[in-house]
User: Which sequence fits this backbone?
């Protein structure tokens, strides 16, 4: 993405702290989503359609929301260091699905407002 957008060394220097300070939280949110998804899948495999499944599903929604917020925050803060032309090119990359923007219904194949795949 850096070469496709023509990010300069100065812009890269400005963007790097965004990732340094927020990447751990983003990874933690992704791990929570994966772990909770596994719990939901296990409940389905066990045939358990009960209050615990409802609770775990609710936790999954919360974990996914947190994951999307962290990804959006990093993308927004990183894009702030780009020129208007670079931001436009980034938007075109998102629209072409070369970069997934979490939770945008116009970006998902199903139109349900979620990432249908995890390309980045």
Assistant:
């Amino acid at each position: 993405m850096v070469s496709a957008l023509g990010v300069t060394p100065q812009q890269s220097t400005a963007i790097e702290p965004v990732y340094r300070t927020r990447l751990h939280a983003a990874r933690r949110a992704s791990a929570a989503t994966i772990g909770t998804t596994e719990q939901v899948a296990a409940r389905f495999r066990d045939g358990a359609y009960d209050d615990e499944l409802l609770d775990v599903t609710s936790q999954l929604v919360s974990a996914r929301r947190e994951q999307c917020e962290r990804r959006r925050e990093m993308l927004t803060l990183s894009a702030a260091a780009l020129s208007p032309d670079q931001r436009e090119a980034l938007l075109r990359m998102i629209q072409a699905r070369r970069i997934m923007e979490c939770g945008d219904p116009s970006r998902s194949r199903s139109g349900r407002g979620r990432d249908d795949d995890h390309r980045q």
